[in-house]
Amino acid sequence: MSEVAVGFAKENGERFVEELKELLRIPSVSTAPEHVGDVRAAAEFVKVGLETAGMENVRLIETSTKTRKGHPLVYAEWLHAAGKPTVLLYGHYDVQPAEPLDEWKSPPFEPEIRDGNIYARGAVDDKGQMWMHVKALESLLKTDGKLPVNVRVIVEGEEEVGGEGIAAFVREHGDQLKADAALVSDTEMFAPELPTLCVGLRGMIYTELEAKGAATDLHSGMYGGAAPNPFVALAQMIAQLKREDGHIAIPGFYDGIEEPTKAELEAWRSLPFDEEEYRKHEVGSTELTGETMFSVLERTWSRPTMDVHGMPGGFIGAGAKTVIPAKATAKISFRLVPGMKPEETFAKYKKFVEEICPKGIQVKVTMIHSGEPIVVSTDNEYVRAATDAMAKVFGKETVFVRGGGSIPIVGDFVRELGTPTVMMGFGLPDDNLHAPNEKFHLANFHRGIESIVRFLDGVGAGR
Amino acid sequence: MSEVAVGFAKENGERFVEELKELLRIPSVSTAPEHVGDVRAAAEFVKVGLETAGMENVRLIETSTKTRKGHPLVYAEWLHAAGKPTVLLYGHYDVQPAEPLDEWKSPPFEPEIRDGNIYARGAVDDKGQMWMHVKALESLLKTDGKLPVNVRVIVEGEEEVGGEGIAAFVREHGDQLKADAALVSDTEMFAPELPTLCVGLRGMIYTELEAKGAATDLHSGMYGGAAPNPFVALAQMIAQLKREDGHIAIPGFYDGIEEPTKAELEAWRSLPFDEEEYRKHEVGSTELTGETMFSVLERTWSRPTMDVHGMPGGFIGAGAKTVIPAKATAKISFRLVPGMKPEETFAKYKKFVEEICPKGIQVKVTMIHSGEPIVVSTDNEYVRAATDAMAKVFGKETVFVRGGGSIPIVGDFVRELGTPTVMMGFGLPDDNLHAPNEKFHLANFHRGIESIVRFLDGVGAGR
Questions:
Q1: What 3-state DSSP class applies to A53?
Q2: What pLDDT was estimated at residue A124?
Q3: How many CB atoms sit inside 10 A of residue A292's CB?
Q4: Would you state the torsion angle of the CA atoms of residues B389, B158, B65, B35, taken in this order, to the nearest 10 degrees?
Q5: Which residue of A lies nearest to B315 if distances are taken between CA atoms?
Q6: Using a CB-CB distance cutoff of 8 angstroms, which residues of chain B are in contact with residue A216?
């Protein structure tokens, strides 16, 4: 059965890419209020795609949180495989902001193919990978008229802003997403040609730390030396949050952290990873930073960390303005690992910055969004079906890795729904996620579709 | 003679304000490349004003530095008072950027009069005060047909960006500005109704500290914990530059500083200054900061300090973007006091940040502009003429203060030309210089014109 569907996918591969391009042209930046219409347009596009594939009961589900109207979920189902398991396919159609725009070689929302890669914001994260799911379903339904398993599809538009809408939906209507397993394609392969399953993700809290000093902007000549400077205060606080050796100095920050197992650590050591290569070709800095007593994979997969993403306020134009701004803000996030809870970490962080706040400054800490860290079980038939499927496509044994990023809803699938989750992703380490010149290797787009067809077939065949 | 001129100024006071409004409508922001045409338009406006006043040889003088074309100087003269001293009048027609625009009650370049104050960017710094000079000359020339002394006028368009153009002109053509004394109105009165001469100014260096980490922006989920974060690095460096007690930790930073004299410190102590009032109504913060072993006046007049004005880079939009930016910058300035040299302070600062630069980060330190600190002599006939003039206008004894800000060219007048300089300013402490809602108290605009008329008359009368 899969062979016919795989044949269909190959014959229609070019069309699939053209459709993906159309989707990539929609600037569905979920964090930007000015793009709210584009985000909805992307949802509509996905809905039409699922209908065309032959899925049933396709619809938008509106979401909202306490404070605002959310972006819609796209739902679809096909539930006629009596006696077979139900698989929940998850993806997201929203994207990160494209800034800084001047560093893109081709415009972020005008997809361009160069050297076998498609370049656009969202190419791999996650429009391209989500579209693989839609096209795998289409390939099966158009050739066989049915699916080998029952399938539910849920595609969200808030993954890049914390996924509150889908989280609320799972809490309140989890039964509508009831499944025996979930398939998520929003991760990457450890190396080119190396089939990879992701079995753990860091969680996160994304916050704003605002420092207020004087009542109004002041002239630094007249007041410098007596008026509090919010940027200097933020710098002093940030320097106390994270030491130069990468250690986070918030009291109790590391309490309760669950270490990876010995077997997992050993498996990581056998992965094809060259720290010097990584430094040179992925990061491109003179040195790597962080807790040197841990390996780079541990530092990015199983150790929590802190980053500052931007510091709005004051004067940022060309040239000079001698202002002591009344307030300044730092966008600060923490990545969390199993054993840490977002609310608890936030509370410790808030308490600490309130304690160390320099005099003359008032701090306000705001949680922008959060997601829980997770690890998933690898000992089940779904993981086996996934590794078998990828072995056929890639001709290689699958490696198990973790991801340093967060996919907030996966934690909810695992915890709220108790659904075994397979994170089978086809990105590459140099795909520039969240950065200028994001790309997706087109060969992996096609191999992804084939892998998903074979995975669903494998689950349906009872192994 | 002055009485007639003063009468003329009073009769024409409303017209003078209407003219000032026209000048304030020109957004001559010298640091902004997009306003280069407006800056020139302001220069032309001043030129016409000086011609109308009856000054001679009025012309624009083009300036340039090694790296760019500068904004023009406006020059004028009237040299027919044989045997009398020559006074050089200095002012500037450029202004600070108006950002943040949303905090202005009326638009920064649409002057509005409320409660006896004129609100606009540049109202007091320095268009309003420079216009007092022009109108004082007009009042004398239109009534008496001549001036009581020889006068040269030089008005620059780069004071807010370091005044490199006028500095080069003074170095190369200082003879064209030859004078027995200089009058500068770009400072403020210590308190309302209290005539004030400023006898010292802090110098400054304005710099950009750029930190570069990875070769490109990175996803903080995937790379957080291993990739250097330029904002965290800047925070760590800034926290090491300035301690929480206000002490600057750069080695040798305070070397060679000249303390104010005992008499000067005593005079400062007798000024009507209430630290709590200042904190509450001028600064508006919960506490004042800085070196508490020094008084607030010392901290802002005779102690060097450091401020951060803005930190461009990364993501500063609404919401969240989980980026580790490839680079980030801090706009950092230092205020210098007598005994410090801008180049030497810059060299110590540069050496220090290069030493403390966290690993994985490359720093680049750039000097944007600088100005030397100065103190001027108070024991000369020009200072006596100024205090006499103000005593007549205000009916009060003049106080001597220093200013915390910088007027770069004043140092050059004092050092290069050896010109005794009188800094007679009419701003008020709450005039919001360099901040939203900048204003000039109109009563002080008119009293300033009268004071200048009487000052020139006093100098001409030989006392």
A1: helix
A2: 98
A3: 12
A4: -150
A5: A310
A6: 103, 284, 432, 435-437
| Cα–Cα distance for residue pair B94/A439, rounded to 1 Å | 47
CA distances from B226 to A61, A196, A287, A301, A451 (A): 39, 21, 9, 10, 32
On whether the CB atoms of residues A220 and A322 are closer than 8 A, the answer is yes
Q: How many CA atoms lie within 13 A of B36 on its CB side?
A: 6
Integer Cα distance of B15 and B10 in angstroms:
10
What is the per-residue pLDDT for B320?
A: 84
Residue A238's nearest CA partner among A253, A248, A227, A226 is A248
Tell me which residues of chain A have a pLDDT lower than 70. 1, 66-67, 463
- Residues of chain B in contact with residue A307, where contact means CB-CB under 8 angstroms, are 220, 224, 229, 231-232, 322, 324
Q: Which residue has the tokens 């070709």?
A: A281
In the 3-class helix/strand/coil scheme, how is B73-141 assigned residue by residue?
Answer: EEEEEECCCCCCCEEEEEEECCECCCCCHHHCCCCCCCCEEECCEEECCCHHHHHHHHHHHHHHHHHHH
Structure tokens belonging to residue A355: 């304690």
How many whole angstroms separate alpha carbon A379 and alpha carbon A127? 29
**Nearest-CA neighbor of A456 among A407, A400, A388, A376?**
A388
The length of chain A, given as a count of residues: 463
Question: Looking at this predicted complex, what is its ipTM?
Answer: 0.88
First to last CA, chain A: 15
**Amino acid occupying residue B109:** F
Q: Is the pTM of this model over 0.90?
A: no
Would you place residue B389 in the very low, low, confident or very high pLDDT band (cuts 50, 70, 90)?
Answer: very high
Structure tokens, B291: 């070196």
Closest alpha carbon within chain A to B103? A216
Distance, in Å, from the CA atom of A421 to the CA atom of B116, rounded to the nearest integer, reads: 71
Question: DSSP code of A323?
Answer: E
Would you call A309 and B314 a contact, using CB atoms and an 8 Å cutoff? Answer: yes
Measured distance between the N- and C-terminal CA atoms of chain B, rounded to whole angstroms: 15
The confidence score (pLDDT) of residue B67 equals 66
Q: State how far the Cα of A8 lies from the Cα of A10, in Å rounded to an integer.
A: 5
Residue B287's CB is within 10 A of a number of other CB atoms, namely 12
Mean pLDDT of B173-192: 94
Measuring CA to CA, how many Å separate A118 from each of A128, A187, B21, B246? Answer: 9, 17, 56, 52
A175 is catalytic: no
Token duo for residue B355: 């030493």
Nearest-10 Cα torsion for B449, B450, B452, B454: 160
Lowest mean pLDDT among A345-349, B26-30, B369-373: B369-373
Which H, E and C letters describe B172-208, residue by residue? Answer: HHHHHHCCCEEEECCCECCECCECEEEEEECEEEEEE
CA distance B169 to chain A (A): 22
What the block records as the tokens of B263 is: 């008499």
Asked if the bond preceding A274 is cis, omega within 30° of 0, the reply is: no
Catalytic residue list contains A94: yes
Give the list of residues 6+ apart from residue B97 with CB closer than 8 angstroms, or none: A315, A317, A321, B29, B31, B32
Domains along chain A with CATH numbers: 2-201+374-460 (3.40.630.10), 203-257+304-371 (3.30.70.360)
Token duo for residue B112: 């509005």
Q: Which two tokens stand for residue A161?
A: 């802003």
Q: Tokens 């589900």 label which residue?
A: A61
- Residue B463 confidence (pLDDT) above 60: no
- Cis amide linkage into residue A72, ω under 30° from 0: no
